Amino acid sequence: MSTDYARSGENHIPVQSDDAPVEDPIDEGTADSDQQLVKDDNEAIDKSNIVEGRTRGAGPKGGYSEPDEDDLPVEVKEGKEV
User: Fold this and answer.
1) In sequence order, which residues have a C-beta less than 8 Å from that of residue 32 and are 6 or more positions away?
2) CB neighbours of 59 closer than 8 A, spacing ≥ 6?
3) DSSP per-residue codes, 19-70
4) Distance between CA atoms of 31 and 29, rounded to whole angstroms?
5) DSSP 3-state of 14
6) Rg for the chain (alpha carbons), in Å?
7) Global model pTM greater than 0.90
8) Most buried of the four, 8, 19, 54, 71, by CB within 10 Å?
């Protein structure tokens, strides 16, 4: 079986056999444990980004309003690229 994959006009790309052993960094003994799941949850949740208190139904402070052209940056008003 060939260990290269070739496209016309291009260099050969090495291909690994389906039967070749692959390094697996996961420890089967602890991968599906409750301890590992808790560790994964703790690593995934950024506690510094959690909002304290309720925010449901909160509206903008000062109400909704359309911006005036005076509120736009000078580059936008004058049509310059940023």
Assistant:
1) none
2) none
3) TS-------TTTTTSHHHHHHHHHHH--GGGPPPS--TT---TT---PPPGG
4) 6
5) strand
6) 28
7) no
8) 71
Whole-number Å distance between alpha carbons of 60 and 63: 5
Instruction: Output the tens digit of pLDDT for each of the chain's 82 residues.
Output: 565 555 666 677 778 888 988 888 888 877 888 888 888 888 888 888 887 777 777 777 777 777 788 888 888 888 887 6
Residue 42 corresponds to which tokens in the numbers above?
């703790």
The C-alpha atoms of residue 38 and residue 27 are separated, in whole angstroms, by: 16
Question: What is the pLDDT, as a whole number, of residue 63?
Answer: 74
What is the Cα–Cα distance from 11 to 23, expressed in whole angstroms? Answer: 27
